[in-house]
Amino acid sequence: MLLILTLAAVNGCNSNGADTNQPQNGTLIEEHPFGLGIKGDGEFYRYKSLNDIGTYKTGPINVNLERVEVVRGSFNYDHSEVYSIAANETLDVINFHIEFELNRKTDDFTFNQEHIHLLTDNGEEIKQPNELLSSVMHASVLKFPKDNSERNLRQFSFRMKESNAEEIEKATVIIDPPVNKNGEPLGEKIEIEVDFSKNQSEQ
Question: What is the pLDDT of residues 109-161, one digit of tens each?
């Protein structure tokens, strides 16, 4: 009897340990505007999302924050050599879907993904989006949108290491202004706080 109880306890611990790696409240992503996890290269779950956050301005650039989503998942393939992400490594990520456009003609300015940062509610600071998961942004994309795509909608993904998809409640995306050829700012810094307690949907 003692042996049976001991085995049952061990099995119970193993089951509980396995469950911690499974999505508790996430929804499997089957459609995604940037193809995340839907091309057979991995599996990702969406935990929270907010739509139509607002439109902001910094100098000559309009910033339309269309969507924010909190996801967790992993890739089937190893990306560690270039991007420091191994196959099946769990990623907790906040994705920002942002459309940028020029509100006036501007030459000789610099604006790219390095201008975008994240601060979470527990104080974790992420200096720039993850290169593997994020779109490329630079001045030519803004100057000649038709040469790149019909819209300037881009994804900027921040991998969290001190927060997780279930627990994150608020986050602030910080966007530095574009700068001219002398390194002088052409606008003001934008700070946008998103509150995931207002989660709209998991679609």
Answer: 999 999 999 999 999 999 999 999 999 888 888 877 655 455 678 999 999 99
- How many DSSP H helices and E strands does the chain contain? 4, 11
pLDDT at residue 4 is higher than 90? no
Identify whether the C-beta of residue 68 lies closer than 8 Å to the C-beta of residue 94: yes
Specify the amino acid at residue 87: A
Cβ count within 10 A of residue 26: 19
Cβ-based burial of 99 (10 A; exposed 0-12, middle 13-18, buried ≥19) = middle
Residues 6+ apart with CB under 8 A from 35: none
> What's the token pair of residue 91?
């990623």
Q: Are the CB atoms for 189 and 58 separated by under 8 Å?
A: yes
H/E element holding 141? Answer: helix 139-143
- Residue 4: strand, helix, or coil: helix
Kindly report the number of other CB atoms within 10 A of residue 49's CB atom: 19
